[in-house]
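Quarterly update from the structural biology core.
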Amino acid sequence: MKKIILMCLVALFSVGIANAQEPKKGEKQTVTTVFVTDIDCAGCAKKVTNTIPYEKGVKDVQVDVESKTVTVKYDPAKTNDETLVKAFTKIKIKATPKK
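Predicted structure, tokenized:
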């Protein structure tokens, strides 16, 4: 009886590990775009980090004041580079996607 219970637990554990490693169907893809901006201080960076993450579809925002770049990870089904450039314009920051 103990062997049967132990074998069932091992089988259940194995199935759980196999399912955890498979990519999920319909898993949302993300796009990462680096924007070259005109930010030059911590205040500008704070404006970006307080505004851009709340745009629809944005998953992550990284600001680098020294290189004047903002890296945005987003869901392409919900937003795009043009919409994000408009969001930067609303907070009076010039941004262009880096090629």
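Residues 2-21 form the longest helix (20 residues).
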